[in-house]
Write a structure and sequence with these properties.
Shape: elongated
Bound molecules: adenosine-5'-diphosphate, magnesium ion, zinc ion
Oligomer: single chain
Distance between the termini: 87 Å
Strand content: 15-25%
């Protein structure tokens, strides 16, 4: 029998709002335990939630970018469950009227495009964190994370492989970053994916699924999918049944184990949240959000290829992070030289990020200053070596480009006299090389050229040097 893996994802993303969803507490990551809390997010009886408008705004941005239909009359529901990370014993979430429904996203795996359906996106609050205390052997509670706004993005069971899942998560992450919806740091838990997986004979009826949690990296997700798919196939091939349950992935052990049998909606006794009014999303609000959406990475990639003829590799480097594409567009616009700007960002800037261990999110060079350098290079006022040196000075020390070039004497000498003088000296010092060149050895020219450039230092203009050197050699011919 040949088996097929069927996967659906539930992605939770913490929103990058300043404050929590129902109170004014900060959403900053970390902090001393229980310092980012107030009576509302600590679940004290008698407190009332006030919805943060920025949460709805971000949900709309995500929903529109993911081609969803927006529920303009939406509301919150209470999901009751008892667990120490949730002091109220209920989570405010959305079941009956989630804010977004019926979207989709296109992914590409090995050159093949595929549409992944998005069933819904809903808003909810995050829970606190259980912290194991090695001293007492007990478990402590940190409620700093409680009440941080979340979007849960639920896909259709449209994935057939780990590679498709990773491609989707990468594109989703890129989209949410471009939208400014979340910082999507998996290591800080601001992007978390639960993997629902079942197997079936190819094209057959849907099988019973399990849900895997605690997947902290794309790599762990890939491994967990492989493991779970093999585990289910083995059970079925041996005539057994897969039990619908929640399983916890242990990345160190490379295996998952059952945590609890899967609950269904009835177990949570959902009911409309009585402390919050329904949300009315006007056409005007929706239109203004739609108009404010930025151009997304995949659109930028298409545009850069079409308008500038850049390669697939170049455009993916340029759109790898929004700060990178912003910098590229800034330099490009100010220098009116997109090709040289692309070369600068994909070359020197990426190299400098690398050697200085700088993350794209920390990228801060002044686009104007870099544009000045691109212009000087294209106007042949500085040569490429001088350009690279000045780019580095702007990148690391925020140097003023013109002042730096003047101070270091990098302005190119297109003064023919100075070049002739240097070339003449080189020819006089190297009569053998000159004779070799005249005898037809092209290599000798490269040597003479190098020597002359060296004499002129960083201010040498290779084209002028070439021209003058050639002239001098030809004139001296037969002399
Ligand atoms: P629940 O309400 O229990 O969370 P949902 O029906 O909302 O379950 O589905 C949760 C996720 O599981 C969705 O991403 C969905 O695509 C996926 N899913 C549902 N059934 C299956 C299945 N048989 N195999 C794999 N994934 C599934
Ligand atoms: Mg669910
Ligand atoms: Zn609070």
């Amino acid at each position: 029998m040949r088996w097929e893996t069927v996967i659906g994802l539930e992605v939770h993303t913490e929103l990058s709002t300043e404050s929590k969803i129902f109170c004014g507490c900060t959403t900053a990551f970390g902090g001393e335990p229980n310092t980012h809390v107030c009576p509302v997010c600590a679940g004290m009886p008698g407190t009332l939630p006030i919805l943060n408008r920025a949460v709805v705004e971000r949900a709309l941005r995500a929903g529109l970018a993911l081609n969803c239909k927006i529920t303009q009359n939406c509301k919150f529901d209470r999901k009751s469950y008892f667990y120490p990370d949730l002091p109220k014993a209920y989570q405010v979430s959305q079941l009956y009227a989630p804010i977004c429904r019926g979207g989709h996203m296109e992914i590409e795996v090995n050159g093949e495009k595929k549409i992944i359906g998005i069933r819904q996106i809903h808003m909810e609050e995050d829970a606190g964190k259980l912290v194991h205390d090695p001293k007492s052997g007990g478990t402590l509670m940190d409620y700093n994370r409680g009440g941080i706004p979340l979007l849960e993005i639920v896909s259709q069971p449209d994935f057939r492989s780990g590679a498709e899942v990773i491609a989707y998560l990468e594109k989703l992450r890129e989209t949410l970053l471009y939208l400014g919806v979340s910082d999507c740091k998996m290591q800080e838990g601001s992007l978390r994916a639960d993997v629902n997986l079942s197997v079936r004979p190819i094209g057959g009826e849907m099988g019973v699924r399990t849900e895997m949690k605690n997947l902290n990296s794309f790599k762990a997700i890939g491994r967990a999918i492989e493991y779970e798919s093999a585990r289910q196939i083995e059970i079925l091939e041996n005539g057994g049944y897969v039990i619908q349950e929640t399983r916890r992935w242990d990345d160190d052990a490379g295996e998952s184990y059952g945590m609890r049998s899967k609950e269904n909606a009835q177990d949570y006794r959902y009911f409309p949240e009585p402390d919050l009014l329904p949300i009315e999303i006007s056409d005007e609000w929706l239109d203004s959000v739609r108009e404010s959406l930025p151009e997304l990475a995949h659109r930028k990639r298409e545009r850069y290829m079409r308008d500038y003829g850049l390669s697939g590799h170049e455009v993916s480097v340029l759109t790898g992070h929004k700060n990178i594409s912003d910098l590229f567009e800034d330099i490009s616009k100010q220098s009116r030289n997109p090709l040289e700007s692309a070369r600068l960002v994909t070359g020197e800037i990426m190299r400098l990020l690398n050697v200085t261990n700088t993350l794209p999110e920390e990228l801060s060079p002044d686009g104007r200053k870099l544009a000045v350098l691109v212009e000087l290079l294209s106007a042949r006022k500085i040569n490429r070596n001088a350009y690279k040196e000045a780019v580095e000075a702007v990148f690391t020390d925020n140097a003023e480009p013109e002042a730096y070039i003047a101070q270091k004497g990098l302005m190119m000498l297109s003064d023919d006299n100075a070049v002739s003088e240097a070339a003449g000296a080189v020819l006089a010092d190297n009569p053998d090389a000159a004779a070799d060149y005249r005898a037809g050895k092209e290599k000798a020219f490269g040597f003479l050229m190098g020597q002359t450039m060296r004499k002129l230092g960083k201010a040498g203009d290779p084209d002028t040097v070439k021209k003058i050197l050639k002239e001098m050699l030809d004139n001296q011919e037969g002399a």
